[in-house]
Amino acid sequence: MEIESESVEYESKRGSVPHAEKIPVSGADLWSGDQAAKDVSTIREINERLRVMVETANDPIIGADSSGRIMMWNSAATRAFGYSPEEALNQPITILMPQKFVALHEIALKRAVASGRLYYSKSIREVSGRRKDGSEFPVEVSISAGKTHEGMFFTATIRDITERKQKDEELRRANRELEYRVTERTAQLVRLNDDLKQEIRERKRMEAMLRDSELLYHTLVEEVPDVIFVLNEEGRFTYLNAQAEELLRTPLRAILDTPISAYVVPEERYKIDSILKLAHHAVWDEEIRLLDADGETKFTRIRCKALDDGSRGAMLYEGVMRDITRRRRLEEQLKESREQLLEKVKIIDELYSHIIQTSKSKAIAQHTAEVAHELRQPLTIIGGFARRIARQFDSYNIGSDSGQAEAVRMIGSEIQRLEKILSTLIEFTRQEGLNRQMANPNAIIEKVLHLYKEAFEEKNLKLSVSLRGDEEEMSLDPERFEQVVRNLVSNAIDASPSGEVIRVETGISIPDSKLIETIAMDAERYFEMKIRNRGAIIDQAELPRIFSPFFTTKNYGTGIGLTVSKKIVEAHKGSISVQSDGEGTTFIVWLPMNIQEHCTADMCMDVQCGT
């Protein structure tokens, strides 16, 4: 008895893998349940591998059905064209090409579907692509076609060649410039030759003029600053002028009949093979690094041409080698100097921000302590009276419908709240010494981040952590430093919208020695911690008040958490600052490393965290 065949197709998160091979199952297979299950599992595994390969490919891979609609789209395609998978799938493939190619594409598609084949299948073609924003860019496309019982399907592998096109244009411009110089030099040589011929005709002394011409040519070759050389078909030097001895710091006799590859740095010797493969009259022009006899690297520009050796029928390669080492070194020094300058400017900007935001609040703290003590005594007396009246209401069974008993209870509740705030103020102004010990600040940060793991998950927040110098310990109070980290991480969580990223970065910063002397910094190396959130931008007018007591942008809390953090950091002779712009809000903490002296009582204030 014949049983109708069935098909199995793997379903991914984005739908089935386009045109995945369907495996028929015969009637006999249906009787073997275990074998059928294994086949299904195998097909699913193959399809999953295919999906992973397509998704992780560096180049865009796009699949389309016979109607020209996009059925497969990987991450590289999203990066290249700007369309998300949801925006691209089931859309016509023509959204990825300039309008002028749409009509030709549709004709070619109909012809391929009708004939069942693609005449340029698997060949690499250079065309233009169109991004989501409408901009066009050059690409290389390789298209393959296949056919199943569901119809034709097409798979395109695409490569963005914008950078290559730019480099080709730069190379063409350089070639044009070099050709112009060669033409100009050739014209000079032609004029010189004409002069020589004229002199020969005038003096009728051919032999003497030939000797003069040979001497002039020899002088020209030997005096030019570039190395002039000739290579045989094996890549060995058969001729060199005197400049080669200066460039390679090797006698000419030792260089002759040796391969040019012997003087090329190992990682660039493959370039020599391309010289020896030049076609007749083809020109090779490229930069290459050489090693002289002392092992010093020399940057050179080589331009050579392949010619026939008329006497033997073999190939010769005549060329010019120009030493560009000084120019390249100057370019590298300029680049390095610019990077160092930018780094110094960045450090100066951050230090300036730290200095501006690190003003002492000692007078404010002392005044707050005096006010808190003055208010505490009368508030305690009032609270005692209120509680006594409340007990009397309760003992005389006075009902609450009159509102008096309820009012007394509200007075007592508010007095308790004020007493709690005064207690916090008194704790805030208390001065104690730091308990310094050697500890790894990165380990403390990791501990705090682990403790807040659930808080991150509740708001669906992502965490980006980059902790450098993680093996180095420094002198600090671990509990107080942990308190600072807790405050900053908690504030970042509160400020961040759901789904955003909080970045935590640390490292070792080394200010310039002149900067250390100028502003009398306490250490030559600083531990730096940055915590950035993508919450609302803090108004520039409010930034100077961000560390002030009782200032908060939230609807809850006492507003002394950042003030506490600032006091703890300053007790460590460090600094804390804040920046808020379009990239988010970043709190930056600097703590001096290897500091020897102990902090004073005025600077070492131990305060409890207030949020």
UniProtKB/TrEMBL annotation:
This is histidine kinase. Residues 120-173, 284-336 form the PAC domain. It catalyses: ATP + protein L-histidine = ADP + protein N-phospho-L-histidine. NCBIfam families: sensory_box. It comes from Desulfomonile tiedjei (strain ATCC 49306 / DSM 6799 / DCB-1). Its EC number is 2.7.13.3. Residues 189-216, 320-347 form a coiled coil. The lineage of its organism: Bacteria, Pseudomonadati, Thermodesulfobacteriota, Desulfomonilia, Desulfomonilales. InterPro entries: HATPase_C_sf, HATPase_dom, His_kinase_dom, HisK_dim/P_dom, HisK_dim/P_sf, PAC, PAS, PAS-assoc_C.
